[in-house]
Every structure is written in structure tokens, then in C-alpha cells.
Amino acid sequence: MEQKKNRILITGASGFVGSFLVEEALCRGMDTWAGIRASSSRRYLQDPAIQFLELDFAHPDLLESQLEAHRRRYGAFDYVVHCAGVTKCVDPAEFERVNYGQTRDFVECLRRLDMVPRQFAFISTLSVFGPVHEKTYEPIRETDTPQPNTAYGRSKLKAEQYLQSLTDFPCVIYRPTGVYGPREKDYFLLAASIKKHTDVAAGFRRQDLTFVYVKDVAQAVFLGLEKGEKVVGRTYFLTDGEVYGSRTFSDLIIRELGHPFVIRFTFPLWVLKGVSLLAGWWAGQRGQTSTLNKDKYHIMKQRNWQCDITPALRELGYRPAYDLDKGVTETMAWYKKEGWL
User: Fold this and answer.
1) Could you give the C-alpha distances from 262 to 157, 206, 306, 328, in angstroms and in order?
2) Going by CATH, does the domain composed of 7-179+211-241+306-321 fall within 3.40.630.30?
3) Chain segment 131-151, per-residue pLDDT in tens
4) Which residues contact 181 (CB under 8 A, 6 or more apart)?
5) Do the Cβ atoms of 10 and 18 come closer than 8 Å?
6) Whole-angstrom distance, CA of residue 211 vs CA of residue 88
7) 3-state secondary structure 150-181
8) Could you read off the pLDDT of 158-190 as tens digits, one per residue?
9) What is the pTM of this model?
């Protein structure tokens, strides 16, 4: 008799991280459902084994109807990975409405419909902690008090706190640091700037950065699913286990571009603050988002991005396969192959 496949729903499946989570689920032989909006691109969701479920998180009644129709036809999901959310908004209030409010509405729908999965994995962010240990440069630990200084970080923290308040809901929370890899657009802008011979750094004081390759994020999430009840209720920071200087990422990009001539600028934080606020305001006047904005300034200002991944190593068996050197090499090769650079 053929063994029944585990059914998994991955929300935000058309996005950068979500699309890699879908690929990992397929590699593991799961019955994989990609949760997308009706308007979502399916560019990175071409595998014929992918099944699609349109979910309207903006309208809870419609969302519940969509989930109920799916349950009647296919049954509930064994696992749900909630990756849907926003990282850029014209109106800062949108962060809370989407990242917190829609997460809450989604979970409440699952509970009402008796569709609570064996495990619900929530993709959060290291930004829920904000500037911690800025003077000592100690790794941020889960016992530290979060003090997010971005609208994005505050919205994710509120979602975390809601999930943690549900004692009967089997949730695991992942807090990756800066995620990069093929298909990612923000770090691509750095590569594009360097190709145009310009590299900009923020502030003159030491800055310790951490990164995690997108495939390692997927690895951690699926290790957590395998562990099942043993890790329910836990939160995990995700990095590649290394700490880097403020220019390391740029140096690797320069190498992969064949060492072009690059003018390197280091701007005082007060200059970047003014430029970021102005750029954000101007973009908002046009109903657009800006790469430089108030949140981005606070991210550039933060000096300590170290965090303790020991729990993920010990409890999940997480072993990052990509350090920054290997990850940037693979990412840049993809940008070139796809004609982005």
C-alpha cells in the first residue's frame, strides 16, 4: 500500500523565501500546497507537482470560506508554514495590519475550522529584538528583552506574542537574520550599485553583521517539522554561524564581479538619517515604497546583529551548509545567469 504523503501548506509561496520552502517540501516528497494571492506571480512555482490554494488574507470571511472549501475537498493540512507578510509598506500601519492582524485572522480560521496542523511554523525575523547589546557586542539571546525600532520588527513581535499566547496551538517560531540568495531583490541592489562602481557603508563605528542563506532557512524549518512535538513552543534564531564586518558582503560581490573599480563611501549616520527620511517621505507622496526609509535607517544604524543559534544547533540538528563566501558565489552566479547583472 502506498504511504500517504504529508500535506503541507506554505503561505507567501510566491515570495523569495516562500518559493524555496516550496522547493524543499517537494524534495521531501510532501503533498505541497502553495498559498498565494490571485494576483501572485508563479514565476518560481513552475513544478507541476505544486498545488495552488488562493488565500485572501485581507478579508477574513473570504479566507475562511477558501479554507473550508479546501478542507471539504482535500482534508486539513498536516503542516502549515506561514511565510506570508510584508517587508515594505507605503503606510507604516500596514505592517501591523498584515504581519500581525492577518496572521491572527489566519490562525483563528484554522482553529474554528478544526484545521489546526500538527505544527505551524512562523517565519519571523531577528528584527523583533532591535538594538540589543550595542556596546558589548554580545550575541542576542532569546532571554533578552525585545526592543524593536522598526515598524516591521514591531509587527512581527506582536504576531509572535499572539502565537505564544495560544497554549493549545503547536507553533514554532523562526527568527532569521538577513536572508539572501537567488531571487532576492534587496541585496541585489547592493550588487547592482557595485557594478556601477559605488559602494556605501553606514557609520564609522564597528558593525557586526550576520547572514543566512535562504536554503539554510528552509533546512531549519523542515528539521523543525521532523522534530514534531519536541520543539513546539520554541523560538530559534537563524544565521550561518559566523559574524562579518560591514564590508565583507561587498568584498565578496566585488570579487564575483571580477574586481571592478569601486568608489567606497562611508557616510555619517546623521546624513543617512536625513536622506532616508526624505526618500521615504517622497516615495510616500507618490504612493510608492522606497529602499531608503525610516525603517531602513534604523537597520543601517544598528551595530550588533549577532545572535545565539546554539538552540537551533542542539535541538533541531541545524547545520548551516552555506557560509557567506559560498552563498554569495552561488547567488551572484544566479544573478548573472538570469540577466539581472
Assistant:
1) 38, 22, 28, 18
2) no
3) 999 999 999 999 999 999 999
4) 16, 20, 213, 214, 215, 327, 330, 331, 334
5) yes
6) 20
7) CHHHHHHHHHHHHHHCCCCCCEEEEEECEEEC
8) 999 999 999 999 999 999 999 999 999 999 999
9) 0.95
